[in-house]
Amino acid sequence: TGVLVPVPHSTLYPKVIDYFNIVQVGYKLEEENNWALNVQELRRALHQARAHCNPRVLCIINPSNPTGQVQSRKCIEDVIQFAAEERLFLLADEVYQDCVFGEGCKFHSFKKVLFEMGPEYSERVELVSLHSISEGYHGEKGFRGGYMEILNMDKTVKDCLYDLVFTNSSPPVLSQVLLGAIMDPPQPTETSYQIYMQEKTGMLKTLAENAKLTEAALNSVPGIRCNPVQAGMYCFPRIDIPPKAMEQAKVCGLEPDLFYCLRLLEETGVALFPGSVFGQRDGSYHGEVKPFKEVISCHMGDTHSLGQKPVTFLRQVIALCTYPELLKDDMFPEDAKSRARRILQECMGGSIGSYNEPAGNMYFRQSVAKYIEERDCGIPADPENILLFPGATGAVLHIFRLLISGEGPTRTGVMVPIPMYPLYNDIIILMNAVEVPYMLEEENNWALNVQELQRALRQARAHCNPRVLCIINPGNPTGAVQSQKCIEEVIRFAAEEKLFLLADEVYQDCVFGEGCKFHSFKKVLFEMGPEYSERVELVSLHSISKGYLGECGLRGGYMELVNIDPHSKQKLYTILRYFSTPLISQISLNILVDPPQLGDPSYETFIEEKQTILETLAENARLMEEVFTMIPGISCNPIQGAIYSFPRIELPDKAIEQAKSLGEDPETFYCMKLLEATGVILVPGHCFNQREEMHHFRMTVLPSPGKLKTLLNNIRKFHQEFLLEFS
């Protein structure tokens, strides 16, 4: 696939194109015509590209980055006609649409123009339009939010896009809240309107004045020429560099404009981007009344949606960092204020709306390292080996992107436990890798057996190149906790077979089974000595979504790298430049790893909230196990950790036959009948790639104890009636 991108262009596009191993097709904007877009240039670029790739996508940045130019309506019409003729997918990057201030200039959205051109275009041209809270007068870069609008996209592709969004983690809820506030600001009759308009008008006026000032000043300097800055937040002046300077740059192995910008930085402290960086010359039910009052989502691990209250100290710190004026308010405890001040001190400009380091703010990474050292009884953790991600999901995606390669029998194989969390299956398919399943032993409380790993590996080597071994501990969906002996055996196996270990440990704070204890792979690895600790490649994951915090909507987590080669680490850093973690998520992670300590004003409240949450999980797990074990046709292993049970159900042959006649999986048939009868949503076991002849469902232990007792009683009653109906 070829992707047509403007030159000059935002640095995002070549990085993403390279990341997905596709072909960049550059089309030149006309500098002499104020960076205009000429359709004849699009035709030239397309014609040449078809000799070596299949151009499929046309990217337009309007208003433009870095040129600050706004496309006219006629230009947009020409581009749409061209895209229709050549059957190109249009990607309209319109993130600077709120920053148009050039004389006579106006922003025209591609969607509006497309529809005004009539059904010939509006019903067949594929278009995705983008907007963001990072740019424009709002400038909330640290919250990482935006939207895309999809037009005329094939349903299969749209479904794939939904799967991708699920796989690569959903946007933080706070980012969505900000997006809502920006898209639906205060109206004239509302109290905040005057302040809002004053702030907005002031920001846009400042941008316009600065643009005029910059343009005038640069054009007064001999050897510098600057086109009018019509919109956006950047100017892109041209500089004439003397031959002697160009020769000196070559001697230093630098691009001339980089040489110039570095000299400028040294002399003035002003950091600019050299032009070469920009590619220059380069689901509901209706009708009938249901026999239940509410639908209860017991299929997800979303603690807050099921009634758990947020941890007070976390939300206080977030509130203080989001709105620092609250630091003057006496209602907040001093340790929350102190933490917020320290966090703001570590943010550029003292604001969590600013950009941050790609791998995560070093202050937060240091706090994670300290947490890991304390958890692992003093084994060192280097902040440079800790990368922060917007949820463990994104971390898995990008680790797999690094490790997966090859075609046919050389394709990378990824060993995953069965039953398996669906995330892994989705990413393996997305990355065109090979799933190598190994079976957990249900009859032995879902234990991991190294002999089973050896069997799976041996069989897989006949058709792929197994490279990665994934372990989920505590288990999802099984709720099993692996012993130290088991982890040692897994590490030896990985060392012998030269496998990369991915330890998904996001439920490490939720261990409550009798005699069970969480052992991190990192700690066990180092306790086994240098023979293993210096050569086994390991990535460990943790998240704010699980455990007692349960902040699923804030999307934050970390990975720790052990024995990863510098080249791979650098690639991860590069990826994170474009998938960095919102600062609000990093703050939440900081509270997870560095909570209030004994003696702090917030300690008593914090420890009471934490213990209550964990004790409730343990009580719910015991109750669920007890009730399921008493129901004929349902069996449930002890729930040792995490937040799910995975009971086995015996389905009558008649029910299985009816499910097949409806084209449904038997477990789905059972779960849908349960939903219709009780309003309880469960996950059918086949979603976890369980053996076809076995039937399970996953249910979370998160509902409040009172509600859970009612739910379990409803499930017991339903199951008995189900067996009677299909006996």
TrEMBL record:
Mind listing the GO biological process terms from this record? L-alanine catabolic process
The UniProt record lists the EC number as 2.6.1.2
Pathway annotation from the record: Amino-acid degradation; L-alanine degradation via transaminase pathway; pyruvate from L-alanine: step 1/1
Organism, by scientific name, is Latimeria chalumnae
Q: Where is the Aminotransferase class I/classII large domain?
A: 2-279, 333-714
Cofactor(s) needed for function: pyridoxal 5'-phosphate
Quote the subcellular location field of this record.
Cytoplasm
| Family of this protein | Belongs to the class-I pyridoxal-phosphate-dependent aminotransferase family. Alanine aminotransferase subfamily.
One GO molecular-function annotation for this sequence? L-alanine:2-oxoglutarate aminotransferase activity
Q: Which GO terms describe its cellular component?
A: cytoplasm
Q: What does this protein do?
A: Catalyzes the reversible transamination between alanine and 2-oxoglutarate to form pyruvate and glutamate. Participates in cellular nitrogen metabolism and also in liver gluconeogenesis starting with precursors transported from skeletal muscles.
- Name this protein carries in UniProt: Alanine aminotransferase 1
Q: Which reaction is recorded as catalysed by this protein?
A: L-alanine + 2-oxoglutarate = pyruvate + L-glutamate
The UniProt keywords, alphabetically, are: Acetylation, Aminotransferase, Cytoplasm, Phosphoprotein, Pyridoxal phosphate, Transferase
The UniProt subunit note reads as follows: Homodimer.
